[in-house]
Amino acid sequence: LENRKLKRAFNRLTGNVIKEQRNCSQTRENTAFNCSSNQRGNIELLKVEKHKIGCLYHKETPLTTERPTTRSSTTTSKRSNPTDAPMLNYIFDVHSTVNKHQHYHDHRWGPYFEGESQNITVQAGATVKLDCRISLLQDKTVSWLRRQEDGEKMSLLTFAQQTYTGDSRYTLEFQYPDNWRLQIKDVNSSDEGQYECQISTHPPKFIHVNLHINAPSVQIVDAMGEPLRDKYYEADSTIELLCVIKHIAMQMQYSVVQWLHDNRTLNYDTTRGGISVKTDLMEVGANSTLSVARVGPSDSGNYTCLLTTMPDQPATVHVHVLNGESLAELHHGVASRRRGADTSSVMLLVFLGFVLSCLVPR
């Protein structure tokens, strides 16, 4: 008689949970339930009550290794439940059954992760979302921790839905029904490392996420894509410099490529004239071309390309504007100096050979 009462209580509470979840599912968007706080609270209270009744029912109904022969055993065998408490097994995974997840037969007695440890690589400046999906959480708590560089100490980032780090870029975004997502905005190289999603079981259960940040780079390059240090131009010619930015998330409202001549910004320079900047933004980088027409000696100096969101990593090239000397004459002078240096080297070798021959006894 007692077991019958418990079963009726099971059925009533199970029906109430399913009803609450169906109310949520009516406003479902992108496969995520959009439940109000009251609905979520009602569901959790119902689950707690079912858990209490389930414990009583399990206590009153002993386990057996024999397969039941009653009609109800047909339904039980289809669920692959090896006990005489099929309702208890069902209660612990009502949500998974409603949403057609078939994991409960392996993890019916406690919380478990739906995914595995993983490696994630993102670009600097991006927003990264570390997912941690857990089924059958019941009364346990989820925490996010980060392993320190020494590999021994852990720092607490979140506990339940509270954030315990002073870095405002870290937030916990719970995605109903089971995703405890850690979000990190504007990531940089200091965010690289191992993160741990942990369940407060005894002993704790956890999975790791290894986060790698691609190091950003800013370079002024030549036509072959090689970094430039010096560039020579004839007077009245046009300076053209290409700045290549890689491995950084470009956000239109935040990231701006700036060109400077010594300490003067060229992007919005209207006093000189003949200056243009063309920047092609990509998802994880940019190509920016600076053009300066009709150059003279005053246009010599350092030209710098930098990203406003990463000002500590500029690229600089020294531009030489030749005054009354052509590039051909410059190259001819360099070649003559090289030939003179080669001749001097040959004469030095001949002299050293003569000295050595005199020192060797015959």
From TrEMBL:
Gene3D superfamilies: Immunoglobulins (2.60.40.10). Residues 63-83 have a biased composition (Low complexity). Pfam families: V-set. SUPFAM superfamilies: Immunoglobulin. Residues 63-84 are annotated as: Disordered. PROSITE patterns: IG_LIKE (PS50835). This is Uncharacterized protein LOC107273985. It comes from Cephus cinctus (Wheat stem sawfly). Residues 111-200, 216-318 form the Ig-like domain.
